[in-house]
Amino acid sequence: MALTNIRNEELIRDGLERLGLLSPSKKVEVAFHSSSLFELYSVSFRDGSRVAVKVIPKKEMAETEAEGLEQLCRLGVRVPECFGTVDLGKVSLLAMEFVEIGSGAGFREDLIASLKNLYRREFGSWGWKRDNFVGSLPQKNGWFSNFDEFFWQVRLKPQLDLAQGRKLLTEKDIQSVRNVFEKFSIEWGFNRVQPRLIHGDLWSGNILQGKNGHAYLIDPSVSYSHPEQDLAMLQLFGSPLNLEEMQDILSTSGLDDPGNLKDRIQFWQIYPILVHINLFGASYLTSLRHILRYYGAN
Predict the structure, then answer these.
(1) Which of 99, 126, 136, 255 would disulfide-bridge 150, Cβ 3.0–4.6 Å?
(2) Can the keyword Transferase be found in this entry's annotation (predicted)?
């Protein structure tokens, strides 16, 4: 497939040289691979190896994505190997292992094993050490001693403020979100949970099925939060896992089930739906209001 932007080929070659992955005399083929929020290129070397290079508009986006991949890897999650980032001024590049997409036995089992590894280790505070991004939107962070403060101050409230500023939500919508959050975060006792590292943007499009049957997680937006946040987002756009498998992941990770996980899934989906309202507009407002009615609000 032809490049969509010839200038990007020059930038990618320059970036790979700076990362020590390409010598000036070495011939490579650079091809456009795919795009969602950002363009992804496949770089093929003469020896048959390939590297994926993502063109990202902001240095901080590239850095925090690389940081997230490396942190997930340290906890036993299967991710593409990260070769580094390079700031080229107008854009930054993230160079990673190229994952050959395919099929094969073991994909679900591999994904479950990665998530169990990820959620098994407890942490003492909620949040993360630096701000990062969810999609193309800034995601605030910081350290918090309790779930309520963390999830309201740096997850729900910033998205509500952004949507209100764009006149996408009414005052009633905002108050209903707050009422649902305050009622059920207390009822389900989230402050009694020890936070775990989560992927933070775990939808089916951010899980690659390699040709070896392995499940690779990409595009993380990490923080120390509640694993149900990941699993609920995975349900939002067609999860490869069923409810029983999700409950097994939680119980294996030492998390009690205060009630029925199925009843809490839509609670956790409020945050990603607010993100989608701010990214894509009011078409997601119906989904938000459906959730609020489900929990007796709006």
Answers:
(1) 126
(2) yes
Listed residue (286, 239, 283, 240) closest to 265, CA to CA: 239
Structure tokens at 275: 């993100």
Beta strands in the chain (DSSP E): 28-35, 39-45, 50-56, 82-87, 92-97, 126-128, 132-134, 137-139, 142-144, 196-198, 207-209, 215-217, 223-225
Model confidence pLDDT, tens digit, residues 271-294: 999 999 999 999 999 999 999 999
Identify the pLDDT of residue 6: 54
Domains and CATH numbers, the chain: 6-97 (3.30.200.20), 107-294 (3.90.1200.10)
Q: Which tens digits make up the pLDDT trace of 61-103?
A: 999 999 999 999 999 999 999 999 999 988 999 999 999 998 8
State percent of the chain over pLDDT 90. Answer: 78
Q: How far is CA 246 from CA 158, 163, 164, 232, 267, in A?
A: 28, 31, 34, 9, 16
Nearest to 155 by CA among 173, 116, 128, 115: 128
- CA–CA gap between residue 289 and residue 40 (Å, rounded): 35
The active-site residue, picked from 110, 173, 201, 230, is 201
Look up the pTM and report it. 0.94
Residue owning tokens 């945050």: 271
Residue with tokens 């010839």: 6
3-state SS class at 51: strand
Query: Is 131 known to be catalytic?
Result: no
Longest dimension (CA), the chain: 65
Q: What is the pLDDT of residue 3?
A: 43
Q: Which two tokens stand for residue 129?
A: 């050490």
How do beta strands 207-209 and 223-225 pair? Answer: unpaired
